[in-house]
């Protein structure tokens, strides 16, 4: 029957969610996780159940119900097909350890011999904490850019602004407070009589510096939308009148937001504001529009350096794109997204940079709006009169968009190198000649919403070959080893050119190698996780000797 089929599908989904949660889930958390993953509530009524607890009691082969301190906890019962994943999750730590940059840089990294069939002799690396995607961080900052917000109101405000719930648990966080601790460099949680208040740190910092020794430039992080004096702003201001620093913050915001005409304005970019009023209403291409130029790539990373990375887009273990973490360029990308949204969201400016049909051609660098954010893209192909396929230079994916959403890229936004780096896992190949769907799903699961450690091996035809390591477990988990142990990959001790990238590598087609890369220079990664073996010369000789043998 349909109910029986639905129940079997639901059992697989519930088991997968519970296996991913080492400590288990409460019934309420299971409901939230299911909504986040499937985008609809648990089908209780369709199956004739009144509650989630009643549902799971009918899954004795899938769910084990435990009690901890009076709270019901649901845990998974693995079957033969999921025992491997359950074992990996069981090794995850409950708490992560912190390793300072100073300590990390003193460590030695041990690299495997190319003749080794079991390359797991790498240095143990420090554990990682959950990481929010850059776009989600930007959305939270956007939400607080107009006024502070009570933590209790965050969920409703996020849903109202972005049209979806803020499901922080899917990124590995256990609580809202853990989320904002990870963003303590940009968001402050202030305690007020009304509850916890979320405030952008730049407001507090600029207020204090203005009274003591002004150093911060207000134009460093422009607001995403025109700032208006709203009722919610004054409500937040009223809540913050109880403490001296918060009072100064409110006065500062009121001063910034004051306008004699009581209209919306852009206080942080006055020159651009003046330019908006003077834009001509002609179809001519603006002089600062990028036409026949390409973005540059990031300088190449030094062999054997260790870098913090996020896999932004994955097709297979042989074709994926990473973005470097904790680098100056990475922070600049977030600032760039803020500024582009600020500029292109103004209708007059947006209309000025509309692209005529003659400019919509393959290879054209431009920008496009997706879900209220603007991205730097290159047109890959024109599909029809309404649609084009574009390559996102900072995140690595291809996407079909409407021609009407394209805009010329301003010359100023050409300076930042393309942030997406085309990559392949080093030293492995698929057992079956091509990657199976199961291998691809496992690889994507191992990468999802995690900051990993990448160990650079070499570049081949513009593609970076590296090892990826998940340091959130008791023992470091190398992704190539997991694929091998699950029977999906063979370790071959050399880098076989990626068949997928040979068929299509948009980065090679549209992104210009950096000047340093063109001059065959290499630079050391400016990352807190970077290290290099102290006896690099001797190990290089050893690897060469192994290769000769």
UniProtKB/TrEMBL annotation:
SMART domains: TUDOR. Residues 6-79, 128-203 form the HTH OST-type domain. PANTHER family: TUDOR DOMAIN CONTAINING PROTEIN, TUDOR DOMAIN-CONTAINING PROTEIN 5. This is Tudor domain-containing protein 5. It is found in: Cytoplasm. It comes from the Eukaryota. Its main location: cytoplasm. Residues 97-121 are annotated as: Disordered. GO terms for cellular component: cytoplasm. The keyword Ion transport does not apply. Residues 111-121 have a biased composition (Polar residues). GO terms for biological process: cell differentiation; spermatogenesis. Belongs to the TDRD5 family. Residues 359-416 form the Tudor domain. Keywords: Cytoplasm, Developmental protein, Differentiation, Repeat, Spermatogenesis.
């Amino acid at each position: 029957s349909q109910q029986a089929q639905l129940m079997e599908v639901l059992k697989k989904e519930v088991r997968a969610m519970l296996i991913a949660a080492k400590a288990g889930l409460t019934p309420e958390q299971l409901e939230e996780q299911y909504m986040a993953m499937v985008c609809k509530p648990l089908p209780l009524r369709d199956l004739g159940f009144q509650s989630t607890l009643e549902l799971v009691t009918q899954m004795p082969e899938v769910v084990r119900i435990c009690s901890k301190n009076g709270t019901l906890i649901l845990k998974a019962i693995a079957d033969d097909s999921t025992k491997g994943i359950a074992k990996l999750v069981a090794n995850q730590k409950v708490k992560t350890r912190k390793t300072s940059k100073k300590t990390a840089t003193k460590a030695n990294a041990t690299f495997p011999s190319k003749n080794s069939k079991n390359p797991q002799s790498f240095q143990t690396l420090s554990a990682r904490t959950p990481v929010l995607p850059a776009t989600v961080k930007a959305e939270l900052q956007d939400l607080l850019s107009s006024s502070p917000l009570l933590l209790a109101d965050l969920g409703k405000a996020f849903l109202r602004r972005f049209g979806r719930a803020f499901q922080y648990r899917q990124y590995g966080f256990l609580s809202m407070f853990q989320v904002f601790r990870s963003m303590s460099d940009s968001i402050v949680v202030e305690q007020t009589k009304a509850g916890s208040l979320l405030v952008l740190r730049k407001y507090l910092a600029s207020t204090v510096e203005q009274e003591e020794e002004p150093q911060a430039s207000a134009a460093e992080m422009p607001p995403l939308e025109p700032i208006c004096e709203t009722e919610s702003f004054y409500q937040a201001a009223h809540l913050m009148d109880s403490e001296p620093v918060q009072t100064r913050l409110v006065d500062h915001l009121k001063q910034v937001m004051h306008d004699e005409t009581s209209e919306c304005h852009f206080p942080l970019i006055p020159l651009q504001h003046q330019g908006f009023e003077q834009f001509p209403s002609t179809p001519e291409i603006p002089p600062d529009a990028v036409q026949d130029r390409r973005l540059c790539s990031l300088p190449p990373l030094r062999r054997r350096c260790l870098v913090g990375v996020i896999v932004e887009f994955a097709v297979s273990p042989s074709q994926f794109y990473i973005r470097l973490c904790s680098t100056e360029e990475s922070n600049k990308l977030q600032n760039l997204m803020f500024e582009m949204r600020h500029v292109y969201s103004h209708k007059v400016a947006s209309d000025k940079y509309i692209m005529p049909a003659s400019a919509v051609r393959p290879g054209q660098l431009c920008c496009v709006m997706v879900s209220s954010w603007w991205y730097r893209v290159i047109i890959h192909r024109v599909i029809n009169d309404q649609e084009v396929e574009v390559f996102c230079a900072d995140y690595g994916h291809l996407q079909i968009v409407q021609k009407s959403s394209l805009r010329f890229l301003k010359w100023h936004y050409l300076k930042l190198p393309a942030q997406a780096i085309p990559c392949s896992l080093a030293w492995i190949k698929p057992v079956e000649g091509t990657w199976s769907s199961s291998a691809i799903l496992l690889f994507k699961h191992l990468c999802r919403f995690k900051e990993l450690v990448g160990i650079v091996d070499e570049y081949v035809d513009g593609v970076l070959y590296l090892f990826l390591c998940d340091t959130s477990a008791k023992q470091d988990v190398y992704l190539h080893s997991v694929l091998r142990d699950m029977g999906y990959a063979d370790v071959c001790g050399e880098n076989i050119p990626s068949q997928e990238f040979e068929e299509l590598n948009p980065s090679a087609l549209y992104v210009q190698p950096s000047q340093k890369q063109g001059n065959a220079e290499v630079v050391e990664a400016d990352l807190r996780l970077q290290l290099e073996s102290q006896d690099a010369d001797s190990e290089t000789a050893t690897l060469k000797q192994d290769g000769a043998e």
